[in-house]
Amino acid sequence: MKPVPHVPYTALPDLTDEERVARARAFHEQISTRRTCRMFSDAPVPREVIEEAILAAGTAPSGANHQPWHFAVVSTPELRHRIRLAAEEEERAFYAGKAGQEWLDALAPLGTDEDKPYLDIAPWHIVVFGQRRGGIEPGESKTNYYVTESVGIACGFLLGALHAAGLATLTHTPSPMGFLRELCRRPDGEKPLMVIVAGLPAPDAVVPLHALRKKTLKQISSWL
Ligand code: IYR
User: Fold this and answer.
1) Which end of the chain, C or N, has fewer beta carbons within 10 A?
2) Which residues of the chain carry a pLDDT beneath 50?
3) From CA 168, how far away is CA 172, in angstroms rounded?
4) Ligand 1 pocket test: which of 35, 83, 84, 107 has the largest number of ligand atoms within 8 Å of its C-beta?
5) Do residues 157 and 57 touch, judged by C-beta distance below 8 A?
6) Strands, DSSP E only, in the chain?
7) CATH number, domain 37-202
8) What is the pLDDT of residue 10?
């Protein structure tokens, strides 16, 4: 390592191995209760919850620490409705055949279709953009690196933070989603990556059984 300005690495608590295992297990248990929600309540959720979750997302690692993300937070019913209408228009074409049969077959166990009423109902949409150019200083226009990976990690942090705060979430990826740039008034150099819908689940919300099937440790890992 070359010498650069630094601080001591003191962020971690001093734990026993047993405590580490217990914490890893507790986190696994907590995050494993997250469910993608497609049936929201219109109950309001404080803006501070969303602010804190976005701040948590903003701590994610990123290429050259350029933090190539922007979170456009939509709460007005008017703009949420415009997002719904535009998303449903894209989804109608998608489900009418643009997706292709293999993709439609893969989605069948989830029961999704072109109707997205939850986009009107859930109190918050967080529209996530990746910035092709930026840098760490305000107003900079340097190349950003590993934008999709970095923003994907930030979205993971965001979903984890919202879940920890007791909110239900949905990652919505209308395809194509260029309309989000226009509706959120973001510049050309930003690429919309997903809409994270957040709120409380409807009292009668259900989750498709298919979504509960998670691969085992054996299936998802190899130990060399
Ligand atoms: N964007 C569509 C289709 C869709 C695609 C995938 I991959 C999913 O995991 C779920 C849905 C929709 O929102 O319905």
Assistant:
1) C
2) none
3) 13
4) 107
5) yes
6) 69-74, 124-131, 133-134, 142-143, 168-172, 190-199
7) 3.40.109.10
8) 84
- Within 45-165, where are the H helices? 47-57, 77-93, 101-107, 118-121, 147-164
Q: Please list every protein residue whose CB sits less than 6 Å from any atom of ligand 1.
A: 91, 94, 107, 110, 112, 172-175
- CA atoms 180, 77, 208, 23: torsion sign: positive
pTM as predicted: 0.97
Predicted confidence (pLDDT) per residue in 118-139, tens digit? 999 999 999 999 999 999 999 9
13 - beta bridge partners? none
In angstroms, what CA-CA distances link 57 with 27, 31, 94, 178, 213?
Answer: 17, 16, 30, 23, 27
pLDDT at position 11, please? 83
